[in-house]
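Homework-ish question, so no full write-ups if that breaks the rules, but can someone show me the predicted structure for this set?
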Amino acid sequence: MIKSKIFFSFIAIEIIVIAFLYTDANHTIAARNAEVQSKRELVRKLSLTDFAVFTEARYTRHPSQADTFSAFQDFPSSMDHFPAGSIVGPQRGNN
Amino acid sequence: MFIYSIIVATLTSLLFLTQSLKKEAMDVFIEAPELIVQRMSAGRHDLIPVGYAEKILSIPGVSSVEPRYWGYYYDNLTGGNYTLIARNIDALHMVKGTLPKGPGECAIGKGVADVRLTDLNDVLFLSINPQQKVSLKVVGIFTADSAILTNDLVVMDKNDLVNFFALPKDMATDLIVHVSNASEVPTIAMKIRRDYPDTRPITRSEIVRTYENVFNWRGGMALTMFIGPLLAFAIFAWDKATGMSAGERQEIGILKAIGWETTDVLKLKFWEGMAISLTSFLTGSILAYIHVFYFGAALFAPVLKGWSVLFPPFNPIPYIDLYQIFVIFFLTVIPYLASTIIPSWKAAVTDPDTVMRS
Amino acid sequence: MRRKSFVLIVLSIVSAVFLSVSMALAADPLKPTSKDKCPVCGMLVHPYTQWSAQIIFKDGTYAFFDGPKDMFKYYLDIPKYNKSKTSADISDIYVTEYYSTKVMKADGVTFVSGSDVMGPMGKELVAITNDKVKTFTSDHKGVKALKFSEVTDADIPDGHMHHMK
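A: Not a homework solution, just the prediction itself:
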């Protein structure tokens, strides 16, 4: 009996925590709306096209601006030698 | 149960992070230029003659064309790659100080400021070789909460940048084409390619789509990282399924012997599995939320960072897609239940005597 | 000297009168609010800024449309939609030009039917400045190019609900 009580109170606590986190998420989204607006302004005024996340290679820094076979940009059939290249693949060209 | 929670936490963290970054990219890059025109030469992105702008401007629907000057700089001192861009604009919200008003000034990203130990009014010295060098007074630093966009930026005056990179006269990195009516963008892109076959127009929707792909949880970044924990979970569940201990089997045998039906045994095992997986699932989700949204996915950062010297701290906005949480639920809870019930069923249908003796 | 100032005064009065009269005659285009609905199809107008059209009456009342097509339906059959008005009450008609997304007088542009450019309600009579009609027709497979006064009921394409993204 006692074990089942522990289990149910544990589940109840977890559900309360999740409910709290959920409201926290909604609250944070609302609170950071101004930040998103400012970021839009940044993108517009600086005409940015990419996230400054992976700075190790051209095609990971600006995936949207990379040419169509950037993985081999240094010489033909060169290996993809950046770790982030396994995460950010070169984009397929539309043309 | 602990391992179970950790696996759920890893999978869910991954989904939380990619979903949040994707949503942010969608939100933010709808303000990216409608059309960017690059010139391609020998299969590479090359400088574009500013003169191309004239003919592009005459295409109906184009409201203006402006050259964009930017490039990369490898900093020998710190081993970091900076993105240098030339932009003359007045004010921005997310910058401490001001933006460069003329030659000799610059605004830098938080990451650049940190690795170069540079503060406002300090001088940033950049040099490629004895002829190509520049000293810039830091008049602005982009705020930390904009780091995901600005971390490695050095914004400077156009003339400084052109001289620093020794760009040939009348050449730019690419051209931004402003289009009044978004529906006309594909037609304009097509006409630019027709007029200048050596160019590659990149539309805004392609930029957005790029990020949709990079942060798509069923591919790219997420999938690469997803496979590890998913396999781990498969091994974990497989181990449970095949390695039912003699004690557990004996337990089922005893229950059968005292008169329990097979269905009763299965019900018991189902609820047992449900209790374990539900607790683990909830714990894992809570851990994931805390990891990603309170600690900026700190455990993933070293993996994502790779060889980047400048890497922005993540501060993702908690956009949560309930659908994805259901997917995680079904990917972990259902196989776990199956892997506990099937061996129990096997043990339950065999003769209790055999089970207890074995 | 005195005569000069007299002339100036007269001139300024005349110009003031002329200005106010011309203002009364020509109403400036309005901006749709988030409440304005198209009287023909009932759709909200403000999400479709690059398509919106408007008819302004002499008494200051107005009607917004989510595209030129519905504006023509209304214009060619005013009593059906607004019993208190006739075409004589109309002060100005504005449409949004396709290439520039600028609001322009309807009689100053050309309307192209049959093109592959879809408005909020499907096929449209797309408003194009006269000098770009040729380009538009060849780029977007336009069929007929009509001046404002040439548009008849038969030229209005059938409306299939087609939400633009």
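Now go work out the reasoning yourself. Hint: Helices of chain C lie at 2-25, 68-75, 78-81, 133-140.
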